[in-house]
Amino acid sequence: LIRKTLSSLTLTIVILIIIALISIVGTLFPQGIPPEELAGRFSPGVAHVLQTLQLTDVFHSFVFIFLIMLLALNLIVCSWVRLTGSRLLHGQTKGGLPPKSTGRSAHAVTMASDRSPEENVSACEAALQTGWKNIQRSQSGRKDIVFSGEKSAFSQYGVYVLHLSILIILAGIVVDSLLGTEGMIQLREGESANVMVLKNGKMKELDFDVRCDKVSVEFYPNGSPKTYRSDLTFLLSGRPNLRSKLLVNQPFAFGGYRFYQASYGRIPSGEVIIGYAKDGKDVRFVTAAKGTIYRLAGSTAKVEILRVEDDFMGMGPAAKIRIHSPERNTDLWLFKNIKLITGAQPDIVTVMPILNPKIFPPYEFSLGDVTARYYTGIQVMREPGVPLVAAGAMLFLLGMLSIYFFPHRRIWLRLAAKENGTEITITGRSRRDPTGLAKEIERIRNRLADALRR
Q: Which of 147, 159, 177, 203 would staple 413 via disulfide (CB 3.0–4.6 Å)?
């Protein structure tokens, strides 16, 4: 009963349906998010249920792995039952005509010869010499002689090669689920690290360091990113071992891990370029960081950098400064896009004097830019099952080629003694290529006819 259940096609269909349903669930719920983020997005009760049922990591869940292993067992038992049956069938047909119960071929050709069966043996052997293997001679009845041969015998086992390839692919999936690692490393330009953050929020230390030397970003005219690249250096014991350029969709392997370019961003360095002019003349520029205090030329007043923002409230780069003078202290927000802001709201400077670049006459201030550095987000994956999946895929391709491009064919020549000579019957069997079999029988008939005329 157990063997019958495990070899059931119904079981295979049920398993595949459940796997498909689980995959659908995996698209409905966010996958691989850490527990703290899960608690922030859902109520405590819902988060507990999702974690208990492993709905936020279904492809690594116990149920998914169990189904994969059950599918593998089902495939093994089915293959064994079918392989055993095919060997028995092969034994029944070997050396004789195929049983009528398996008559899959409607192709049969009959020829006549005025010679005895023994005198036609050499002609039949000559007709089967080209391309046919495992040629055998046997007796059928008292005087009938039967020749049999086959082509592409290995193709009979192509289906088992396919089954084996699927088993190897499933093994790769299980290995990845149990032993695979996936995490993220975020590095600023010039920064290095040897720790990655896993999907569950835990940390994993690497056996080497990764340093980001440079992040290069190209943009389209509309401002959207065209391409971005990270120049990385991998260090062993603090010494550079290998350098690589990491691009989107072009991963790089090192130390048993694969590195993928996942994201990028800008980090304000805290330095700004501030311009100021007295009475509209002699514009001067000062590059300073947050907390810096410098003196205005031609005045006893001093300027202190209070805040630096890469994008303040969606209005672009900005900096807050404080002008220290004997009379008073004046705060001022400087925006790089001040012309766009005043163009959209002409009276904003009047309503909010803190945005007026001329708030401290006779000086007028402007913001050149906020200098920033890029950071890179690198996805790090260890996929020990990938070689198995690749090997399984190659084996699957070989199995498909053997089945559909090299179909197995079996041929029989039967020499039956008649009163006036011999009746020669040519028949064959091919499970997947009856048209090709008919052509083969025709070629054998032509070669045999030529041999009989000699």
A: 147
What's the token pair of residue 340? 């766009």
Task: Note the pLDDT tens digit of each residue in 327-355.
Answer: 889 999 999 889 889 988 889 988 999 99
Instruction: Note the helical H segments in 302-384.
Output: 338-344, 348-351
Using a CB cutoff of 8 Å and minimum separation of 24, what contacts does 417-422 make? Answer: 417/116, 417/117, 417/143, 417/144, 418/112, 420/114, 421/112, 421/113, 421/114, 421/115, 421/116, 422/112, 422/113, 422/114, 422/115, 422/116, 422/117, 422/119, 422/120
Q: Is the pLDDT higher at 9 or at 369?
A: 9
Q: What is the DSSP string of 160-197?
A: HHHHHHHHHHHHHHHHHHHH-EEEEEEEETT-EEEEEE
How many CB atoms lie under 10 A from the CB of residue 403? 20
- Assessment of whether the complete model's pTM goes beyond 0.70: no
Q: If you compute the radius of gyration of the chain from its CA atoms, what whole number of angstroms results? A: 40
The answer to whether 334 touches 304, Cβ cutoff 8 Å, is no
Helix (H, G, I), strand (E, B) or coil at 99: coil
Q: Of 365, 371, 296, nearest to 331 (Cα)? A: 365
Q: Phi and psi for 101 in degrees, rounded to 5?
A: -70, -20
Three-state secondary structure call for residue 144: strand
* pLDDT tens digits, 278-328: 888 888 999 888 889 999 988 899 999 998 887 888 888 889 999 999 888
